[in-house]
Amino acid sequence: MTMIVHVDIVSAEEEIYSGRAEMVFAPAEMGEVGITPRHAPLITKLKPGEVRVKIDNNETLHFYISGGLLEVQPHMVIILADTAIRSKDIDEAAALQAKARAEEALQDKSGKLDYAQAQAQLAQAVMQLKALDKLRKRGG
Amino acid sequence: MAVGKEIRTKIASIKNTQKITRAMEKIAASRMRKTKDRMQATRPYSKKIARIIKHLAHANPEYKHSFLIKRDVKRVGIIVVSSDKGLCGGLNSNVFRKTLTHLSQWEKEGIDVDIATIGGKAAGFFSNLKANVVASSAKLGDAPHIQDIVGLIRIMLDSYNAGHIDELYVINNEFVNTMTQKPIIQQLLPVIACEIHTTLSGRHWDYIYEPDAKDILDHLLIRYVESIVYQGLVENNACEQAARMVAMKSASDNAGNLISELQLIYNKARQAAITQEISEIVAGAAAV
Predict the structure, then answer these.
(1) A11-21 tens-digit pLDDT
(2) How many residue contacts between A and B have a Cβ separation below 8 Å?
(3) Domains of chain B, with CATH numbers?
(4) Which of A109, B163, B209, B263 suits a disulfide with B213, CB 3.0-4.6 Å?
(5) Radius of gyration of chain B (CA)
């Protein structure tokens, strides 16, 4: 009987694959690695590339990942995949965008009265009315 | 017959409204199923990351990442997750109310707050409050991608690394069940000690690290924070659909009640008009 290892490929958004395999190939940062059952515990970062899961001699599954992390234990292999290609520059560009949006939202109130703003003011007014009601009850 | 024309048009217009609310209820129900599946699909990732971080922190007690160190709190950051659209009952107001309670408590303690908002409603609410909103992200839809919130999280993490804020929280609705959603606040940074520093059971063993443990720990802690915020976002989405479904259901029911009441009034008015007409005819005949 051939030995098998349990493989989980998960990303932050979904579980991509979960099942058994004879061997797993992954694009580690220091070069491609092949993991067989009873491999020593290992953690390494992954580069964008192809993960191959060899289920048996006839069937091999292919997954493309955009980087991530590989955890190996003797009886299981876990791949924590990133959902998109990540680099410092891309992250910083995204950060700038988020900041710009916040500033935009803050300055927007000069022109049209936003529905959410109106709702917020309504909520405040309701709270004030409630407070008044309470005071009145206490008084009368 | 001219009787109760206003009532009839009123009934017709309420019926139209009821059709709309009923359709929205059905749509929300089917979307809720999808968003709930998505919520469940995100759980394995953060669970697995948490386990590896725990192991790493345990295996390298001498290396302290800044995300694991507690500091004196002078300023905190909070990420508020809300929906983009309304008509979902008290969902967003509940989150905002809980946030405001925390804000006023921090104000009392003399702690400043930086706010990052996810979702259109939170952006509108907090900009109106003139709160210190440093980042925002909106219009993410039912199936948000983690890239959509990476920028926002990055701002908060940078500001934590620069020592600008000393703690980071995320607040969102928790999906208890279809009828109940309650706002919860979670501490992201520093990563809570009891979660990480508990001793692992069994004999001690360690991983082989490539390239090295510190690098991987840095990488993982960022992913961990991201995955928790992302999870909050998808959970809030499921809550939004559930809350909308319930709100629209009660709106349809209320419309039904209103219609039957109006129908009763209309029937009475019609009957009264007929009776009056008959008595007028009888009286007229008697006079002749």
Answers:
(1) 888 888 899 99
(2) 159
(3) 44-196+206-246 (3.40.1380.10)
(4) B209
(5) 28
